[in-house]
Amino acid sequence: MGTTGLKEKIVLFRELFFGRFSLALRVLLAHSAVKCFLESSTWNDMDKLVIRGGTPLLGTVRISGAKNAALPCMAAALLTEDTVILENIPQVRDIETTRRLLSAMGAEVELGYGRAHHRTTIQTRNLAAPEASYELVKTMRASTLVLGPLLARCGRARVSLPGGCAIGARPIDLHIKGLERLGAKITQDHGYVEATADRLRGAEIVFDKITVTGTEDLLMAAALAEGETLMQNCACEPEVADLADLLNKMGAHIEGAGSSTIRVQGVTRLSGTKHRIIPDRIEAGTFIIAAALTGGDVKVTNCDPEHLTAIVQKLQEAGVKTSHNADSIRVMGDNPLKAADVNTEEYPGFPTDMQAQYMVVATQAQGTSIVTENIFENRFMHAQELVRMGANIRIEGRRAIVRGKTPLSAAAVLASDLRASASLVLAALVADGETIIDRVYHIDRGYEHIEEKLKGIGAEIRRIGEMFPKKAAAPNRG
Ligand code: UD1
Prior knowledge:
- It is built from 16 helices and 24 strands.
- It has 478 residues and is of the alpha/beta class.
- It has three domains: 1-40; 45-64 and 280-464, Enolpyruvate transferase domain (UDP-n-acetylglucosamine1-carboxyvinyl-transferase, Chain, Alpha-beta prism), CATH 3.65.10; 67-276, UDP-n-acetylglucosamine1-carboxyvinyl-transferase, Chain.
- The strands form six sheets. The protein has a four-stranded mixed sheet, covered by helices on one side. A four-stranded mixed sheet has the order 2-15-17-16. It has a four-stranded mixed sheet with strand order 4-5-3-14, with helices on one face.
- The longest helix has 17 residues, at 23-39.
- The two termini are 24 Å apart.
- 49% of the residues are buried.
- Mean pLDDT is 89; it is low at 1-8, 34-41 and 467-478.
- It binds uridine-diphosphate-N-acetylglucosamine (UD1).
């Protein structure tokens, strides 16, 4: 349950039980109290965001821990029977899904937020059921990250194949090929990957294509394999390096994580440890764009500017003024925006997870920007919603041609995936009028309390829910 509307809830319930009202008024108050209760739920599947655009954002916003680093680190806790304590875990829906996933296997997972410093404690004494069911994998593709750890720890794993998702096919063939190189026997049956191995053996693995979770999955498996594993053409994302940091604290011997070649000397046992998750560079990038778009002045704190180089450089090219120190970036959005082309690439290039948000910048920049998506084949779903708000965007295969500057006008829009929903929030912040964004459960997968953070820097945003929410809507992949 979120804190949104907590005060209203307390007042309503107090009035309801202790106020001197007639029966009719009491019934009316009860109705409002239930409505208020439901509306303040953080992860109501039927929630919508209502945003009135046009206010420059001013102030300071604190960035949460990186969801994409937290997910593999939680999976890594399966590699030991000792307790792993993870700090700076973001309070987002994908983390709750991972808690359910690990708990279903027999792990004890305690999520603590707020005063508990966003600390999660995981202990897996026994892995009674080394299995990731379709029910969980279909809602969060990253569930496949448990394949490597389960195989390394118990010698067997049964993990549902993720299938397609909103942004493309996203197979896991490279995870499977790599695990086979380490000696696993893998079959596919009834939509599940079934893997067995006596003990994994170190090997040389060259990834055919750069894959982030593939690199992470193999890294966790290799940590407990016998002998040396040499991995080449690895993903260099900071989230991979963060996972390696955690594994090394647990007793692994990993060198080179964060570069394209990683060397792992396998060990027989890993132990418990405490680790702090790195800040979320995508959340930081999203707030930097929010400030720039609205012509605001915002200090984005608790971030790592080094991880944001490609994003900040591209925004500077588009006319955004920024300055930074060790762990914060200040954005001064008083310059007019100008067109700048962008190509998504693996780290340290411009991240695909910022492409949708950048497209909103392109709609507000003078001139024509070409946005090229090189990582996923179908990641322009947000474009059609932006066009409904007045943007001039033409899609040609992997390229989006955006002509600006076009004024955006408020509309009812539909979020299709996590980052697409962030782009709609950004568009709404500069649109004329009140935009209603439906299916915001996508945004709750990866942004912690987005409306509270935006409200804190002056945005006019509120969350509304259905009085009697129906059962969960379409699967929220991404
Ligand atoms: C991760 C991120 C996601 C980000 C993406 C690219 C997490 C939890 N998610 O996703 O937010 O958008 O990196 O930066 O960290 N591929 C294959 N075979 C495989 C694996 C991948 O062909 O076995 C392809 C994919 O279809 C895609 C490309 O490789 O075209 C990159 O995908 P990958 O890096 O694996 O993305 P994820 O790790 O799923």
